[in-house]
C-alpha cells in the first residue's frame, strides 16, 4: 500500500514539473518576442558608426524597394511587403547584425592597430561571411591604401572589397586615348632628357607627321576636311605599340616612376577598359604596374587610380603570364609583409602568391637556359602515351575484370564510373603492397646516385595522376612543388638571351651580355628579393647553371657578404654545359653570316673561361659543401622543320665530376619538363627539397578562438 502511494506522489511531481517547464518556456518565448518588437521599433537597424569621417553611402540592393524606384512614390511603407517576424528570422537578423558590426570593428583595428593587430584583423575580416553587397561597398569606401593591399593579398578575397576605378562609366574614344598616351610619351622623353634611344626612335617613326605644335593632330584635321588622311593609321595596333613602348620604358628603373609623375596611371586604366578582353594587352599593363610597384612611395596614387582591385582580378587569372606580374606588384606594394624584400623586374614570386600563416623554411630559385623563360622552360611535358610506360593501376580490363563483366559489354557512363571507383577503392586498400617504377628513370648513374627510382602504389603522385592529366600546368614549380613540399618560397628568374647579334636589341640593355655582367646584375636583384636570408636550393637548366655557378663564385670571392654561399644547400643541374656546348661550334664563314651573340660565344666547347669557372666552383665547394644533383640528356634534339637531330650538351660536358649524376633518355628541351609528378626528374627534386626542409618547426598559426578571447586594445602572439 505504501509503495502504491509512493508511486502516486512521483507521478504528481513529474506532471507538475512538466507543466512548469512548458509554461515557463512559453512565457520565455513570449517575453523574447515582445522584447524583440520593442527593440525593432525603438532602434533603427541600419545605424552606422557615426565616428567615421569618410563619406557615407547606403547601397540599397533589396527587391522589396523595386516599386519605390519605379513609381517614384514617397510612401516607402506602402510599397514594402512585410516579412514574417518568426523567431528564426529574428535570430538570423541579429546574427547578421553582429557580423556586420564585427566587420567594422575589425576594419578599425586594421587601420589603427599595430602591425600584429593589423595582420590578425585582416585575416579575420577576410573570413567573415553573410555580409550584404552594400556592406562590402561601404567597407571598400572606408579602406585606405595600406589596408586595401593587405586584403588584396588574402587567399580567396572577395572582389567587392575594392572600389571600381574612378570614372569607370565614361566611354573614351580611341583617338582620344592615343592622343593622351602620345602626349605622355613626349613628356616622358622630356623627363628622361632624350637619353632613351628606343623611345626617341619610336616617336620619330610612329608620330613623325601626326602632331603639329604638339597640340593639333592630323586625324582631327581630317575629320573636318582640312587635311589629307595621315600616313599612320590611328587604330588599336598603334595604341598597342604605344603600350609596348611604355612597358619597355618602365623596365628601366630610373624611368619607371616618371610614368606616375606624368599622370600615366589614369591613362593606363582607360586602356585597360578598352582592352579588358585582350590578354596580351593586359599582360603589358600588368608588367608596367609591377615595374612601378618597386617604388612603394606611389602606393597612394596606384590605389586612387583603382589598380588594386584590377591586380587582384588579374592575379586570379589562369594564364600565368598575367597572374605572375600582377601578384608580384601586390607583393611589392604590401609593405607590412616584409619591408626589406622587393621583387625587381624579371624576378617572379611563384609561391606563395598570398599571405600565409606558415613560416617559410626554404627558398627554391629556378633559372632557365638559352632562349628560355619562366613560362617556357618549366612547362609540363606532353605525355607520350604511345610508348611503353607504367600501366595505370586504375585501368579496367574488360576481358578479365569481373565488375565489367557484370555490368555488360557496353556499359552506360555511370556504370563505367562505378567500375572505376570500385577499382580505385580496391587499389587504395592494396596499393601499399606494390612498388611502381618512376617514369624517366635514368639509363646510367655514377656510384653516388641514390634515387628514388620507385614509389609506393598508394603514393600521392600515383593517386593524383588522373587529375594531373586533366589539369595540365603551365609552370610545374608553381603548381606542384607547394603541394608536395609545403613551407617553401618559389622564385623564377627571367633573363634575355639571343643567338645572334643581328637580332634588334635595346641600345641600353644590349650592354649587359657577358656572363660576368649578368651575374652582377642578378645577384643584386636576388639579394633584393631576400635570397641569402634562409636556406636556398638552386634549380637550373642549361646556361642557367653557368649563371648560378658564376654568382656563387663571385659571392665567394667577395667574402659572401650576403650569405648566399653559406645558405645554399643544393644545386640541381638539368643539362648544364660545364665544359661548353656544340651549339657554339661554327666555322669562320658561318660566324660572319650568323654573327653569334656573346652568350653563344661563351658556350664554346672547352672554353678557357668555362673551365676556369668550373675550377673555381670546385674550390668553392671545398669551403661550402653543397649537395650537387645533375641530369644529363642522352637523346638529340630535333631542330627546325626538317627535324635535324642535334645534341646540345654531351654527357661529358654535363657531368661536373661532383655529386650525383644521372643520364636521362630525354632531349635538351624536355629534360626539364616532367610529364607528370610520377617522373624521376621531379621526384628526385622533391626528395632533395624535403631533406632540407626542417620538419620540427611549428607553424605560426593564429587560432580564431584565441583572437576572440584577447582584448581589443592588446593582441599578443
Computed Rg: 33 Å
Beta-strand percent range: 5-15%
Low-confidence stretches: 47-56, 211-229, 385-391, 393-400, 402-407, 586-595, 696-717
Query: Structural class of the helices, strands and pairings?
Result: alpha/beta
Overall shape: it is globular
Task: Quote the average pLDDT.
Answer: 78
Give the helix tally. Answer: 33
Quick one: biggest sheet? 8 strands, mixed
* Cα separation of the termini: 70 Å
The side-by-side strand order for the widest beta sheet comes to: 1-6-2-7-8-9-12-4
Query: Helix amount, in percent?
Result: 40-55%
Q: Based on DSSP secondary structure assignment, what is the total number of beta strands?
A: 12
Structure description:
The protein is α/β, with parallel strands linked by helices. The strands form three sheets. An eight-stranded mixed β-sheet has the order 1-6-2-7-8-9-12-4, sandwiched between helices. It has a two-stranded antiparallel sheet with strand order 3-5. Helix 10 runs parallel beside helix 14 (279-292) and helix 26 (543-557) packs across helix 30.
Amino acid at each position: 500500500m505504501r509503495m502504491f502511494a509512493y508511486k502516486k506522489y512521483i507521478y504528481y511531481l513529474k506532471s507538475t514539473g512538466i507543466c512548469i517547464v512548458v509554461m515557463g518556456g512559453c512565457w520565455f518565448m513570449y517575453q523574447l518576442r515582445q522584447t524583440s518588437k520593442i527593440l525593432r521599433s525603438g532602434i533603427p537597424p541600419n545605424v552606422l558608426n557615426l565616428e567615421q569621417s569618410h563619406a557615407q553611402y547606403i547601397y540599397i540592393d533589396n527587391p522589396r524597394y523595386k516599386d519605390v524606384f519605379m513609381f517614384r512614390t514617397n510612401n516607402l511603407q506602402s510599397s514594402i511587403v512585410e516579412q514574417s517576424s518568426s523567431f528564426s528570422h529574428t535570430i538570423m537578423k541579429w546574427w547578421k547584425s553582429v557580423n556586420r558590426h564585427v566587420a567594422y570593428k575589425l576594419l578599425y583595428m586594421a587601420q589603427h592597430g599595430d602591425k600584429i593587430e593589423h595582420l590578425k584583423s585582416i585575416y579575420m575580416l577576410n573570413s567573415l561571411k553573410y555580409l550584404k553587397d552594400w556592406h562590402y561597398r561601404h567597407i571598400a569606401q572606408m579602406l585606405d591604401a595600406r589596408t586595401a593591399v593587405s586584403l588584396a593579398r588574402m587567399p580567396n578575397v572577395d572582389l567587392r572589397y575594392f572600389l571600381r576605378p574612378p570614372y569607370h562609366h565614361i566611354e573614351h574614344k580611341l583617338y582620344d586615348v592615343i592622343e593622351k598616351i602620345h602626349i605622355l610619351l613626349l613628356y616622358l622623353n622630356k623627363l628622361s632628357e632624350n637619353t632613351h634611344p628606343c623611345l626617341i626612335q619610336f616617336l620619330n617613326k610612329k608620330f613623325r607627321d601626326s602632331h603639329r605644335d604638339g597640340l593639333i593632330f592630323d586625324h582631327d584635321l581630317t575629320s573636318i576636311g582640312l587635311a589629307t588622311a595621315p600616313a599612320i593609321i590611328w587604330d588599336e595596333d598603334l595604341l598597342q605599340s604605344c603600350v609596348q613602348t611604355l612597358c619597355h620604358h618602365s623596365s628601366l628603373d630610373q624611368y619607371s616612376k616618371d610614368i606616375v609623375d606624368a599622370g600615366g596611371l589614369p591613362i593606363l586604366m582607360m586602356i585597360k577598359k578598352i582592352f579588358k578582353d585582350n590578354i596580351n594587352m593586359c599582360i603589358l599593363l600588368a608588367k608596367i604596374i609591377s615595374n612601378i610597384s618597386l617604388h612603394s612611395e606611389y602606393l597612394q596614387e596606384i590605389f586612387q587610380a583603382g589598380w588594386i582591385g584590377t591586380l587582384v582580378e588579374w592575379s586570379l587569372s589562369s594564364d600565368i603570364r598575367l597572374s605572375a606580374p600582377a601578384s608580384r606588384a601586390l607583393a611589392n606594394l604590401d609593405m607590412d609583409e616584409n619591408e626589406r624584400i622587393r621583387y625587381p623586374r624579371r624576378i617572379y614570386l611563384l609561391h606563395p602568391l598570398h599571405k600565409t600563416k606558415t613560416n617559410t623554411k626554404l627558398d627554391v630559385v629556378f633559372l632557365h637556359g638559352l632562349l628560355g623563360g619562366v613560362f617556357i622552360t618549366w612547362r609540363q611535358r606532353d605525355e607520350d602515351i604511345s610508348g611503353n610506360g607504367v600501366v595505370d593501376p586504375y585501368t579496367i580490363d574488360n576481358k578479365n575484370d569481373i565488375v565489367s563483366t557484370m555490368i555488360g559489354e557496353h556499359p552506360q557512363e555511370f556504370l563505367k564510373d562505378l567500375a572505376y571507383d570500385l577499382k580505385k577503392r580496391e587499389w587504395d586498400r592494396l596499393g601499399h603492397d606494390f612498388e611502381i617504377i618512376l617514369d624517366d628513370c635514368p639509363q646510367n648513374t655514377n656510384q653516388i646516385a641514390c634515387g628514388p627510382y620507385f614509389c609506393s602504389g598508394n603514393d600521392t603522385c600515383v593517386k593524383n595522376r588522373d587529375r594531373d592529366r586533366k589539369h595540365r600546368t603551365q609552370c610545374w614549380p608553381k603548381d606542384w612543388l607547394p603541394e608536395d613540399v609545403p613551407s617553401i618560397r618559389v622564385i623564377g628568374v627571367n633573363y634575355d638571351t639571343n643567338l645572334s647579334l643581328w637580332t634588334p636589341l635595346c641600345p641600353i640593355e644590349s650592354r649587359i651580355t657577358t656572363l660576368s655582367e649578368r651575374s652582377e646584375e642578378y645577384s643584386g636583384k636576388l639579394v633584393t628579393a631576400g635570397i641569402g636570408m634562409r636556406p636556398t636550393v638552386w634549380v637550373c637548366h642549361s646556361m642557367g647553371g653557368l649563371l648560378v655557378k658564376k654568382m656563387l663564385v663571385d659571392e665567394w670571392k667577395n667574402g659572401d657578404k650576403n650569405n648566399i654561399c653559406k645558405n645554399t644547400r643544393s644545386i640541381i643541374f638539368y643539362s648544364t654545359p660545364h665544359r661548353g656546348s656544340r651549339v657554339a661550334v661554327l666555322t669562320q664563314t658561318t660566324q660572319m653570316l650568323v654573327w653569334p651573340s656573346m652568350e653563344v660565344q661563351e658556350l664554346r666547347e672547352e672554353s678557357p673561361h668555362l673551365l676556369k669557372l668550373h675550377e673555381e666552383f670546385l674550390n668553392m665547394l671545398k669551403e661550402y659543401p653543397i649537395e650537387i644533383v645533375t641530369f644529363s640528356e642522352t637523346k638529340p634534339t630535333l631542330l627546325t622543320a626538317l627535324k635535324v637531330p642535334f645534341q646540345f650538351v654531351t654527357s661529358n660536358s654535363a657531368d661536373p665530376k661532383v655529386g650525383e649524376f644521372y643520364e636521362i633518355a630525354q632531349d635538351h628541351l624536355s629534360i626539364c619538363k616532367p610529364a607528370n609528378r610520377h617522373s624521376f626528374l621531379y621526384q628526385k627534386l622533391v626528395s632533395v627539397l624535403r631533406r632540407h626542409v626542417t620538419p620540427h618547426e611549428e607553424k605560426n598559426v593564429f587560432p580564431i578562438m584565441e583572437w576572440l578571447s584577447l582584448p581589443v586594445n592588446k593582441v599578443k602572439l
